[in-house]
Structure formats: C-alpha cells, structure tokens
Amino acid sequence: MTHSAVNGTSNSLDNEFRFSSDLSLENIRSDQHKFCEERNWLQFHPPRNVLLALVGEVGELSELFQWRGEVTRGLPEFTSQEKVRVGEELSDVLIYLVDLAEQCHIDLPAVVKDKMKKNAVKYPVHRATGRGDKNDDPSAYKQETSDIGDMQREREEGDGSE
Ligand SMILES: [Mg+2]
C-alpha cells in the first residue's frame, strides 16, 4: 500500500472520500483463487476454515482499535504506520470474505446488491432518518397506512411534478 493510498484523503470531507475503481470482487476472487492454487492451498480452504481465518483477521483489525476509546473518521489519531496496518488488516478481512463466498458458491456482488435493496425497503428514508437504534422488529420501520395517505396528499397538493 502506498503512503498516498493511506493518507491521500484523510483530510478530505467524508463526502469527498472515494475508493479507487480498478478492482472488482471478481478480481479479488480470481486472484486469491490463483494464489491458493499455485501453492496447493485450496485443500486447506473449505468454508469452515476460511470462516475461522476471517474471524481471526477481524480480531487483528480490532486489536488496532483496542483500548483507544472512540476514534475520529479518517483516523487522525493514528500514525501513518498504524494506518497502513489498518489497511492491511481490512484487506485480509476482505480477501477472506470473498474467499468464503467463493467456497460457499455465493455470488457476493449479486447478493450484496439484493441485500442493499432489501435494506432500503426495510429502512425507508422518511421513517429511519436520524434513528440510531437497531430494531429487528420488522414492523418498526414499516410504512404506516397514514404515511402513504400523507404522501399521496402531498403529491396531489404539489405542482404535479415528480
Ligand atoms: Mg492480518
């Protein structure tokens, strides 16, 4: 990881932060598969083993945040070296996550897209905005009939434009 990859946007506003766009989940899957195949390691990568490796990497990532108290977005409290390590452990987590999805024959990009659509339905903007609580009650964020009525009324009272 380059120094600029770690620190390039650390002082930017959150809305200006972007990932680079030259790597897909399929790239990661195929590169990791090749990496293991070349070393005859695929035999060690059944789903349970990969899941435990993933959990181990989450632990390594967690150690970097342990005992610090809350930290600020962009990690200004971290040294450059510490931030490099955060990037490395995040990478380990992602690589094992993608590996696990492959071992389970789960098309990760497809299910992520589906899940994000489900999340948008489960947490509609007008009912979930500003709410920090996690509520597993499926009715908690459901649109109430009166809300739908309000929305229709607002549309009818508006200028007709969408
Ligand atoms: Mg690691």
UniProtKB/TrEMBL annotation:
InterPro entries: dCTP_Pyrophosphatase, DCTPP. Residues 130-139, 150-162 have a biased composition (Basic and acidic residues). Coiled coil: none annotated. Transmembrane segments: none annotated. It catalyses: dCTP + H2O = dCMP + diphosphate + H(+). The keyword Ribosomal protein does not apply. Its cofactor is Mg(2+). Residues 123-162 are annotated as: Disordered. GO terms for molecular function: dCTP diphosphatase activity; magnesium ion binding. Keywords: Cytoplasm, Hydrolase, Magnesium, Metal-binding. Gene3D superfamilies: MazG-like (1.10.287.1080). It is an enzyme of class 3 (hydrolase). GO terms for cellular component: cytosol. It is found in: Cytoplasm, Cytosol. One of its GO terms (biological process) is dCTP catabolic process. Its main location: cytoplasm. The keyword Cytoplasm applies. Its EC number is 3.6.1.12. Homotetramer. Hydrolyzes deoxynucleoside triphosphates (dNTPs) to the corresponding nucleoside monophosphates. Has a strong preference for dCTP and its analogs including 5-iodo-dCTP and 5-methyl-dCTP for which it may even have a higher efficiency. May protect DNA or RNA against the incorporation of these genotoxic nucleotide analogs through their catabolism. This is dCTP pyrophosphatase 1.
